[in-house]
Amino acid sequence: MKRIVAVLGGGNGGHTLAADLSLAGHEVRLFEMEKFKGNMLSVFETRKIECVGEVLSGVADISLVTSSIEEAIEGAEVILVAVPAFAHKGYAELLAEKVNSNQLVVLLPGTLGSLEFVNTWKELNANKDVVIAESDTLPYATRLEGPGKVRVNVKILVQIGVFPATKTDWAENILKDILNVRMVSNVLEAGLSSMNPIDHPPGTILNAGRIERSNGDFYIYEEGMTPSVIRVMEQLDNERIAIGSKFELSLMTIGDLLHTSGYGPKGDTWEVLNGSRSLTPIKGPSNLNSRYLTEDIPFGLKTYASIATYLGIKTPVMDSLITLATILVNEDLEDQGRTIEDLGINGMSVSEIKEYVTTGQILIAK
Question: Which has fewest Cβ within 10 Å: 37, 102, 166, 366?
Answer without folding.
Answer: 366
